[in-house]
Recover the amino acids of this structure.
């Protein structure tokens, strides 16, 4: 079975400061990794994904994430945040192969950007 | 950009009543999903659907739940006799994937239906 841990339920940060949202996963099989963002009263929007290749992946809105296999981590970073980045961020995994590619989500991290 | 649409955005229902949540997935997608998010909790997988049948379901998806693709464009989730604990945001998602079982196709989510059981 797979599981995802997001240790920080909330991360307050000032505008234009850098931020890192942490994600660790556990799986006995190979997985793909994703970050989704949920703005208030909206659905989940894909930020970025790691499938294979370079461990540093870039996504939309200036976000990037680094896959670290030895530490089973996939932390999300942004060098300078904006007020508009305030949202809930979810890390998720899915198996490489299976009957279905259901997503297993972490509990989410609320990024609260303050002016 | 094509998107997944869900209706209604908010559904209020009396406990014990049947409810149907509707979704229109992206037109060329082959895999369809329902997830739910109870207030303050994480997003949980309910069921996946491919080739007109359920490919996987979670332990949450008991006999009270059913899914259907009635007309080739809509994808519905029905709860037969709602309970208070069914109150949640329900998300529909769809993905490409001409090759069954491969997990690298990202899922595209709708904005959700907030279901409130009174």
């Amino acid at each position: 079975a797979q599981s995802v841990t997001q240790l920080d339920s909330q991360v307050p940060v000032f505008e234009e400061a850098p931020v890192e949202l942490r994600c660790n996963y556990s799986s006995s099989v190979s997985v793909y990794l994703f970050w989704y963002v949920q703005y208030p009263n909206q659905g989940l929007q894909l930020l970025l994904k790691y499938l294979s290749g370079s461990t540093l992946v870039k996504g939309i809105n200036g976000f990037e994430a680094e896959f670290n296999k030895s530490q089973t981590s996939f932390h999300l970073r942004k060098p300078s945040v904006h007020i508009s980045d305030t949202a809930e961020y979810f890390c998720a995994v899915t198996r490489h192969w299976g009957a279905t590619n259901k997503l297993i989500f972490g509990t989410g991290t609320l990024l609260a950007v303050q002016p | 950009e094509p998107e997944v649409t869900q209706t209604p955005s908010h559904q209020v229902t009396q406990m014990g009543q049947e409810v149907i949540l509707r979704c229109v997935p992206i037109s060329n997608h082959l895999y369809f999903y329902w997830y739910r998010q109870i207030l303050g909790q994480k997003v949980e997988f309910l069921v996946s659907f491919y080739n007109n049948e359920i490919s996987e379901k979670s332990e949450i998806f008991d006999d009270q739940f059913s899914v259907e693709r009635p007309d080739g464009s809509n994808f519905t989730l029905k709860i037969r006799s709602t309970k208070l604990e069914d109150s949640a945001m329900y998300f529909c998602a769809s993905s490409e994937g001409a090759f069954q079982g491969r997990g690298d196709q990202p899922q595209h989510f709708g904005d959700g239906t907030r279901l409130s059981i009174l």
